[in-house]
Amino acid sequence: MDIRTELKELMENKGFTVLFVATAIGIAKSTVSMWLNGTYKGDNDKITDKVNNFIQRERERSNEEELPIVDISIMKFINEIGRTCHTKGKIGVCAGRAGLGKTVAVKEYTKNFLDAILIESDSGYTAKSLLLEIHKRLGLSGKGCAYDLMNEVVNKLNNSGRLLIIDEAENLPYRALEITRRIHDKTGIGVLLVGRNILFENLRGYNNQYDQLYSRVKYHKLLDGLHIKDVKKILLAAGQDPELADIYLQYSEGNTRRLEHLISHSISLAKFNGNDKVDGTVIKETSKMLMA
Fold this sequence. Notes:
It contains 15 helices and 5 strands. It has 292 residues and is α/β, with parallel strands linked by helices. The protein has 3 domains: 61 residues, 434 Repressor (Amino-terminal Domain), CATH 1.10.260.40; 150 residues, 3-Layer(aba) Sandwich (Rossmann fold); 62 residues, Orthogonal Bundle (Helicase, Ruva Protein, domain 3), CATH 1.10.8.
């Protein structure tokens, strides 16, 4: 196939623009356009080499497909506590170290239950910015003073039976957590706070000074790492040998994100070395390339 035709097909399949390709290969957009049309008078071989490298890179990238979402124990725990809080109008907390798959779990929950509201907080959140975000997610303007925002949020959520999920809730300052409690108290909606282990300390306060907040927590779960049955499920979903579960668990250290990287990179490394099958040696070598 002609290289120009090959690039045009790739652009069509991937939705790439001429500007995207030009930026990726470091050539001016007008130059790429002329080269595609066969009217470029400059060094065509140079453009062809760059395009070849771009096409090869995109092919390799396409071969590294994301692993499918699997119903592992972490997903199950978050789903169970989330649903209980949702239906009973209670506050729940799920916490564990980074990379366990908490964010994937809460996003899946909101796909299954469309009346759940997911807020993905970050370190810049204040009480007002949290209120603004909830306000916008409810289809309101996202504007106003804190007093008006609170009243409008409460009026919209009152007796609605909805669930408010806040991911990475350990980033919220105390006033934002207190706002969340007040929304719960005034509306009767369920609340699920998800984050790293320090979230429990934030809710209690270092000297247990936040009893009013922590006492509202009805359900809580400290999330552990992956179990061997989880690893086997993930390997089966990825089309890999579940007999490798023990070594994958060992080198992933029970971390879901690290396991996914380990699986995908092990497959790529095996293929790079001319093998279709991953073995323990490949997994061990791959683990050395991943950050701890």
